[in-house]
């Protein structure tokens, strides 16, 4: 809101009219949060008819890595005691065959551990099933998310109207803001509500004239929310890196005080270090770019004195040098840390980013898996149509443009001010000013008529979605899981696609060769080896690979072997052919150095049931979707002939 500061000298500033947080307005924020929670819960129930399907069907609905995470919650509940459950997680030998790994170190599953303990101690077992306790908790976090958005918008504008619009916009644009109703267990659905809470706390912390006692309380809230965010998502470091870069930029442009910058950096560092300890000294955290950046920024800031003194040209030059020094030291520290720690857990992410931004084509199997997924593709054009349809896009773009222009003007004004004792007086006399919390956030405002329009739209659009009823139907997968559970040994080891194996672990408890949690270099290499069942490899080579990882059974999926969902070059069999240096299937161009494979595709050839496939594998289960083969153990004579 624009306001006149002096009678004879008009000053343009982004300020606000103080307004107390009235009880009815608080209730509105909570009501919007509860509405979002009930809405996504209803969509989930209507989409699957969750309350009327069998337990195995409910578990199958936890697709891909969702099933893997939920399996640890189920495992903790089945354990004789909490202590035994924790011991089994720390010494797990069922998630990766022939290996004993610490699940609490490898994965961010403390939320499953906490929830399982809570379910054990609360008197709710008689009337609330464990699976409902789990999904309702995740849906309840959406309440926290919306309330945090409401508070942030309210703090920025001192108007409950802005808070209400933020909540309504979030709900209306559900397709583009969350996928919680069908990917319940994904780490982002646990962590992002805490991140929204952290942003609200930072917004409060950066408000002008905040009392010291209030600053300390809010900083604690920043720490707690940052810690919860980091603990529940393995990709927290990339989000925090972006946040640290924003703090660095605002510091360079003189929007924040030294105390504010150091405090916010320390909250990030302390949160990451505490998570590092809880995850049994997970080296991926110490090797994160955000830690290297914060250490570099604080170190250079401490020794590069006089950064904010001098005229405009001198200050810009100093800032350019400062930025260069910080970035150089960041990459030096990060490179050294990864070399010392021999860290390769996140190298596939940087390979993906490098290829995504066009820095050379890649045949790397792991990076290609990400590149070919729609979720990591460019934003679809219909996204903008949807956002415009809810009248969000144009007000957002207008507000963003105005604030960005004002931000540039204020930044130029700040850089033109000499950092002397007269700095505070000069700041008061500036033509353009912007609050630091506004500079940190995007301001969301709109008119009363727009809000009324949204509420009417809420009743044409959301009620239609809620009234649409579907039912979970996947009989082939149900049949497969029941057969595995009833017809195979409890310690049997299964090989197959990452997505399917996560479901097998959840529904049957069998041992896996690989799984979808991809943040481990050895696991990625094992997955590439196991996936040779969909490549052009000999029966002997595939059998050798599967035996080396301890597999007893392999599950082949027609939907992968004859995949049509992706275009040529992005089908799994194409990625394997490229990684193996083979020409891809079907019409189309191939790179000149690729060669014809000397063997047929394994997943097709094995179905002929002819030697050498019948010599090494026996089909034990088949339906329209899946083919399960049992590995025959080679006799010692054959082993000697084929080598170790």
Radius of gyration: 28 Å
Main sheet strand line-up: 4-3-5-7-6
Straight-line N-to-C gap: 76 Å
Number of helices: 32
Percentage beta strand: under 5%
> What does the average pLDDT come to?
85
Structural class: mainly alpha
Q: Quick one: how many beta strands?
A: 7
Q: How much helical structure, as a percent, in the residues?
A: 55-70%
User: What ranges have pLDDT less than 50 throughout 5 or more consecutive residues?
Assistant: 1-20, 443-459, 461-467
- Biggest beta-sheet profile: 5 strands, mixed
Shape verdict: globular
Keywords: Glycosyltransferase, Membrane, Transferase, Transmembrane, Transmembrane helix
Membrane topology: Multi-pass membrane protein
Transmembrane segments: 131-156, 190-206, 218-250, 270-300, 312-333, 393-417
Family: Belongs to the dpy-19 family.
Throw out a few tags for this protein.
single chain, 644 residues, mainly alpha, five-stranded mixed sheet, two-stranded parallel sheet, globular
Question: Explain this structure to me?
Answer:
- Helix content is 61%, strand content 4%.
- With 644 residues, it is mainly alpha-helical.
- The strands form two sheets. Strands 4-3-5-7-6 form a five-stranded mixed beta sheet.
- Helix 7 packs across helix 8, helix 8 packs parallel to helix 23 and helix 24 (475-487) crosses helix 25 (498-508).
- It is globular and about 85 Å long.
SSE arrangement:
Elements: E1 12-14, H1 23-48, H2 55-60, H3 65-78, H4 82-90, H5 103-106, H6 110-121, H7 130-157, H8 160-172, H9 174-177, H10 187-205, H11 212-231, H12 236-252, H13 258-278, H14 283-286, H15 289-303, H16 312-341, H17 347-356, H18 365-371, H19 382-389, H20 393-415, H21 423-428, E2 432-434, H22 436-440, H23 448-467, H24 475-487, E3 493-495, H25 498-508, E4 511-512, H26 521-530, H27 539-548, E5 553-557, H28 558-561, H29 572-580, H30 602-605, H31 613-616, E6 617-622, E7 626-631, H32 636-642
Parallel strand pairs: 1-2, 3-4, 3-5
Antiparallel strand pairs: 5-7, 6-7
